[in-house]
Amino acid sequence: MPAAAPSPAPPRRTADTVRRVLGEALRLTRPVEARISPDGRYVATAAATPDGARLVLTPVGGSPDAAPHWPGPGAPAAERHTPRWLPDSRTLLHIAEPPGGGPARLDALDTGDGTVRSLAELPGAVEELHVSDDGREALALCAADGAERDGMHLGVPVRLGPAPAPERFAPGLGARTLHHVDLADGRRTEVSPPGLTVWNTAWRGGTLAVATVGEDTLPGGYYEARLARLDLAARTATTLHTPAGQLAAPSLSPDLRTAAVVEGISIVSGRPVTVDLATGAVGHPAGTEDATWLHHAADGTLWYAGWDTHGSRVGHAGPEPRVLWRDTVTLGGPGFQPALSLSADGRLAATVLDAPGRAPETVVALTSGPDAWRWRPVTALNPDPGPGLAALTTEETRWHAPDGTEVHGLLLYAGPREAGPRPLALLVHGGPAWLWSAGYAPGDVLGLAPALAAAGHLVLLANPRGSSGRGLDHARAVVGDAGGGDLDDLLAGVRHLTAAGLADPDRTAVLGHSYGGYAAALLAGRTDAFRAAVVVSAPTNWLSFTHTSNIGGGYDRAYALGDPTTPAGREDLLARSAVLAAGGRGTPTLLLHGEADRVTPVGQAHELYRSLVRAGRAPAELYVYPGEGHEFTDPGHLLDAAARAADWLDTHLGGPAPDPAHPAAPTTPPRAAPEDDSPRESSGAARPLPVQERP
Description:
alpha+beta, nine-stranded mixed sheet, five-stranded antiparallel sheet, 37 strands
């Protein structure tokens, strides 16, 4: 008998690869923050694992494969993070959160024998922890139960237990306050000035602190916070500096004579500002941009770490600024921003390093001498990260917008570069003052960048005007021009890759999260440049946003979107809104949103969905995920949303991308390309297409 013919292979789906590669990313153990001991012998790492937050203790001089020291078996069960060394280089303070919820604890780990002591209960979620220079006191910044959080912190309220029913909203609720702990007896005392919310602080012990403060407890108030000198004994605040933008990362000199803070916009990176605490004189040191972390050394040097185009930079700020190190890699710290930890003598630095082809690990380096800034891993948290992520190529690219502005971006792809033209996925980050930096598995926009690249797409991670990494003027270039020049930058990137023969103009999609989702929705509504769009957690109506978002009133003023108290301002807000975007013939649009999002409330998604359905020019679907905030955190929800996005692209780009190992031309006929991608008037009434809305 003749041999039976082999069964045909099942059709290849982009979603299958997306699930597999995104699953690899979700299984990574991600070091969040690294702290080197004062004597430079050990590094404590706060690591986010698939099972929760843990501490890892590793020797600086040992092998990264050495077994880490964890809290001993007698330690109470808890998620442990925010490590802070005492001067003895043996005791490690940290925050412990009970697995069942409830108030956080300040615990002390004896790294010599692994025992843990509970020192104090803290009244809320701990957002910052400081230790006095003499090791006798601690200061914790605590967000009360119900305190609202911004998009960098998931966009959902702090919950120490079940959500109240009904939930109460009233001015003054959910404040962030400072609490002093005497480490000898565990006595805790609230020391915040009454009536003020503290957003971040610097403190070295005693009664003096500097902090960014404001009256509004909502994250929208952070956009108008000022730098103040705090007397923790008298619980009073004296304003030191009222900024033009937003403040973060304050630092205090060891002699308590000088304070410094970063001034920027939105998600803060920016320029250092210094204040003489004796005279009140404010200085603006030139030559330092995109700082995210400041530290006064014992000799008075002001260190900084920050962004550098798609990478990171370390240097000294001040009258004679110096760049000590820079590279196209991502350094990490609290808030997912570049930061360092220095030994007491300043000879060693520790941080988290994440780079293309190199899974994130904690690293250390000497800060001077012939071997300075040669980062060496001291952890091996991800010994086998997975084949899908490791096989990708990341390269820098640049192009020019129509007005001559140079724009930078990253390309991700699998297989040989010359395998194009490929389907193009343009991914737009949030902020807009965030950025795409060179990393192992870039995480914005549902973590789709590496997954789509592995599936055969050419992925463009663009940093248009408004992004961090190229100076504060570049980040402020969208103020008063949201949805203007930044969209020109993005469209120019698509044209650049098409002209180079790398991207197929008839198989191009745009995907974005938060402000990036807003940009994606505008591009889908105003132009015919894309065959599909995916909009995640996006603001779509700036007029309703300013009244319903927990950053409303602050964010829209920072970006000069329009004044909702005047007729002209309301017209400006609506004119910039994606719900009224017109000019294109219609782009199939998938909306994905978290039901619990307080930054871009889910009503923003419903508004855009309804406007697209009424227009009837192209398919639209909306999926709302229960319990999710501005970022999706449930792995099942994240994988489901990413797979739906991949299926949307398969459906509307004419099938899956060719296998990058065996590229082939698409089998479906392309649509006729538009003459250009500039906004145009609607082509008139179209036959309504069937639309699905699913929970």
